[in-house]
Amino acid sequence: MKAEAALYKEMITEENSPLRFTAYGKKFSAAIHEGRLQIFLHSGKKEELQTDIILPVRALTEGTEIALSPSLPDKPLSLDPARSIYVLAGATVSFFIPIPLWATLTVNGLPVKDIILKEFSKTWIGEVGQNGDLGYTHHQEPMKDDNALLSDAAYMEIAIENKSRISFDVKRLILYVPFTALYKNEAGYLFTDRQKFIISPNNKQDIKLMRPPLAGIETVARPRRKASKDYFTRFATFLKKVTVMS
Amino acid sequence: MFSGFADFIRSILTHPALPVILRSLAVLIGGTLLLKVITHFIGKRMGKKYSPQVQMLTRKGIFYTGVILLLFYVLQQAGVKMSAIFGAAGIAGIAIGFAAQTSISNIISGIFLVSEKPFALGDIISVDGKLGIVESMDLLSIKLKTFDNLFIRIPNTTIINTNVTNITRYPLRRMNFELNIAYKEDLSRVRAVLLDIASKNPYCLDDPAPYFLIKEFGTSGIALLLGLWFEKNDYTDLKNSIMTEILERFRKESIEIPFPHISVYTGEATKPFPVVSQKK
Description:
The complex is a heterodimer of chains A (246) and B (280). Chain A has 246 residues and is mainly beta.
């Protein structure tokens, strides 16, 4: 998705409300009534209240700026492709995954809430009922070409480097979306950090999030979470559990 | 009258025991303040490494041991013979021990609870059928707040001697729904419908996958079990939404949930007893 299309800004006062606008292909309305700002997301006949806040007096007289900016989902995504990804011994496989965007609603520059533009079903990443993290299931096929990506998503480049002597049939991959920033490239398209899975010669697995070189790119949203020291090591073992050696 | 009062004050100020009393008071007040500072500092140092219960026990243990030592010191300064005190304390200890058997048992159980850590503050536990959130874990008892806002105090010995269920220990839980369907229903279709309901419910996890079991051929219908995994905080949302969805979908798909009924036969295995209603 182009960054320009993903950024919406508007001033709203009590006089011009309700304000109806379209962003991210969705219909919104915003209204100030008796000192409260209400923003609704309309889908079909349903309207869902996104926020209801009491505005400060100054905002009422001078106007309130509402903005929607692109953000990434708040939990890791469990990529469940219909066909597993086969990685030959000694080979490196690269592909792109579209990451559906959410939007962050800011009022007068202060973030108010995430607007969930794409609902995911929840899943558990880790040992059943024990250590792990809650994530979302992302049914998406890997893409070889970043030009073919969907219009309402940012792209994430994935690389699986298999340094071992066995081939792997990867059935599930965890995309660490909350730990990556969102960037805009020179052409204005949104993308994330590159995620690399490395399978070492002794079959140990490691995950790396690689930040792009800073020239020509702009950070649109910073990472939501900072990974603890053992986070990726812990989850690398889960990757091991979901891969099937051929 | 005024001179009498002045004499009284003078006699106090010149009393040989005054320095001892003043020193003892200074030791007691200063020592208690110092103990407070030390326990506060220790509490801070323990920080997030130790549970609040361990912190509380350590702080109280240090404070009360310090207070006892201070008292001994003050008594010694006052010229009280410690051997006599210890002798009396021994006898008193036996008497108090008998009187405070339950309390001591609770304290010891409390120490076991802290070391065993079956639950922590904020956990939801069930003890003897009483369900609530652990609000505090003290030396003698734990305090629960039930969901209908009742306060329950459970002695530590009871906790040690009873089965305790910690409902929120693990991040995930499985909710089991027991359903009955009529014998005429196609089991594979019912299974597909139930799994479809689960896959569309936002609170039900995709992985671990829902569990489906044909439990038994019951008296009124076929008993099924649907086990759905969810994040522990989503209990109410999942329960309410899935019950509604199952009922609505079963109605839409014309899947019958049977109620208990009895067929009466008159000797023939296939034909039930005929019941005919006749209007006059």
